């Protein structure tokens, strides 16, 4: 069939469609119909199925029929003829192939970036939507491109104390001060081995939760924590190194490896913290509690909940309670946990810092000055101490002890990070003296007594003595104005 014949056939079919549309809407074109009556007719037409111009059954919506009526009124019969379909723009195959090659070369390139490269190289590029459809068709987007979400396998330690997982949680406010919970969970049994609330999320509060856990539950083979400031402190690395614990930090922004401790903290929020409301300083005062006493009470309540409720509740994944799984695990191993000695535990939780001894055999630590053995002059020594007592420092050089450093000048008795759990000091009572107001009052008195400016002359004193001739006081001036107004 030639192009001319195709065009003639298309026009004939278009005329048939226009005639059919006119025949369908003709009952609604009666000039005497009101708007309401015309709407009723159109709804009746839309409710029926109709045999189309080419024998097919069709239903037409109310919106379609109204659109045809508007077209007929605006343009007559010719407006009902369907418009000729315009052929779509044909895209250059070479441009599309280049776009696919650019995406395969660097999967991180976005559709917008590929379009920029195409415009820079060939002067033209398809739209971003077209490129996205093209990339999806060639499996260059989404999981099919190998760039989907990473898959994480389920991991569980095989025995108790093989790995502990630690994290922190924001707790309630006690007397207006925020509390923080440090907790450690055994990966195999889900037993809460260590936990403690504190008024700060720092290394000292972390040590207060970890040290009792090691003393009570033994030394784990490894400890898995996040990258919080308290968990990356050099003290924790030293403590783990002294006890033979392998410290592992999770990948930043990848919390999937800490799923068990996160689930435990969610249980704490849902079952424990929901029963602990925030309190203000006034409420603590009404109960006769200090901040330290309120914190002790909170830790006692949490210990009771963990030991009496959580440890005896059957875990949905293990099918056992944490305490039962803990006991069964050690029974299957044939031995108990490896317990640290008191000396080893004390040594692990001491802090240390390196300092170079001066020529005068002294070292400085956080503003304090200490005297050491003269033989250590010029050498880098290790100062081992408790963060709560900077007056008692042991000096070590190449793992050998050189005795205690003698305090020479002490300005700080505790490490800056060793903040106490007590409340902030209350401000002193006010004296009621407003110094600037006293200055202002004195200034006003001085101005009033200064005879060089005759402020008293502005007012009538009942005597004209000393008044300049012809000068009126403010009272006389006001009286004159009132008399003039009365006239």
Characterise the protein shown here.
Helix 5 crosses helix 6. This protein has five domains: 3-80, no CATH class; 93-143; 164-333, Ribonuclease H-like superfamily/Ribonuclease H (Nucleotidyltransferase, domain 5); 350-409, OB fold (Dihydrolipoamide Acetyltransferase, E2P), CATH 2.40.50; 435-486, no CATH class. By secondary structure, the chain is α+β, with helices and mostly antiparallel strands. The termini are far apart. It contains 15 helices and 14 strands. It has helices at 3-25, 35-47, 62-75, 93-105, 111-122, 128-137, 203-217, 234-243, 259-272, 281-287, 291-308, 322-333, 342-348, 435-449, 474-486, and strands at 50-51, 57-58, 164-174, 177-186, 192-198, 222-225, 246-249, 351-356, 362-365, 368-371, 380-386, 389-397, 400-404, 406-409. The strands form four sheets. It has a five-stranded mixed β-sheet with strand order 5-4-3-6-7, with helices on both faces. Strands 8-11-12-13 form a four-stranded antiparallel β-sheet, with no helix packed on it. Strands 9-10-14 form a three-stranded antiparallel β-sheet, with no helix packed on it.
């Amino acid at each position: 069939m030639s192009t001319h014949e195709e065009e003639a056939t298309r026009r004939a079919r278009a005329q048939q469609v226009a005639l059919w549309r006119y025949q369908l809407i003709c009952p609604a074109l009666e000039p005497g119909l009101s708007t309401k009556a015309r709407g009723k007719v159109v709804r009746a037409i839309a409710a029926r199925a109709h045999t189309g111009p080419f024998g097919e059954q069709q239903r037409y919506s109310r919106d379609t029929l109204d659109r045809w009526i508007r077209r007929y009124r605006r343009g007559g019969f010719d407006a009902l003829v369907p418009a000729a379909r315009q052929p779509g723009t044909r895209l250059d195959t070479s441009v599309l192939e280049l776009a696919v090659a650019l995406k395969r070369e660097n999967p991180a390139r976005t559709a917008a970036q590929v379009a920029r490269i195409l415009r820079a190289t060939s002067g033209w590029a398809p739209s971003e939507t077209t490129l996205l459809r093209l990339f999806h068709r060639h499996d260059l987007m989404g999981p099919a491109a190998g760039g989907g979400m990473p898959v994480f396998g389920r991991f569980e330690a095989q025995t108790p104390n093989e790995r502990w997982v630690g994290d922190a949680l924001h707790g309630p406010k006690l007397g207006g001060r925020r509390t923080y919970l440090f907790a450690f969970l055994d990966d195999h049994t889900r037993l809460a081995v260590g936990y403690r609330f504190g008024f700060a999320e720092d290394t000292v509060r972390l040590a207060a939760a970890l040290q009792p856990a090691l003393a009570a539950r033994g030394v784990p083979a490894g400890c898995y924590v996040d990258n919080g400031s308290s968990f990356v402190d050099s003290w924790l690395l030293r403590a783990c190194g002294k006890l033979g614990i392998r410290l592992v930090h999770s990948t930043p922004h990848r919390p999937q490896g800490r799923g068990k401790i996160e689930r435990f903290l969610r249980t704490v929020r849902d079952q424990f913290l929901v029963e602990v409301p925030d309190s203000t300083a006034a409420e603590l005062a009404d109960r006769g509690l200090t901040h330290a006493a309120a914190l002790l009470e909170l830790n006692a309540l949490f210990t009771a909940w963990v030991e009496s409720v959580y440890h005896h509740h059957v875990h949905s994944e293990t099918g056992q309670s944490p305490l039962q799984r803990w006991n069964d695990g050690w029974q299957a191993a044939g031995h108990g946990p490896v317990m640290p000695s008191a000396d080893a535990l004390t040594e692990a939780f001491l802090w240390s810092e390196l300092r170079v001894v001066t020529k005068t055999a002294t070292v400085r630590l956080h503003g304090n000055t200490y005297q050491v053995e003269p033989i250590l002059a010029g050498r880098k020594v290790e100062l081992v101490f408790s963060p709560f007592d900077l007056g008692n420092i042991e000096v070590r050089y190449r793992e050998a002890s050189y005795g205690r450093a003698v305090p020479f000048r002490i300005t700080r008795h505790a490490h800056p990070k060793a903040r106490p759990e007590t409340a902030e000091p209350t401000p002193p009572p006010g004296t009621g003296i407003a110094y600037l107001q006293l200055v202002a009052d004195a200034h006003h008195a001085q101005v009033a007594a200064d005879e060089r400016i005759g402020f008293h002359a502005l007012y009538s004193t009942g005597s004209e003595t000393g008044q300049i001739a012809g000068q009126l006081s403010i009272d006389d001036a006001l009286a004159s104005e009132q008399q003039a107004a009365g006239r």
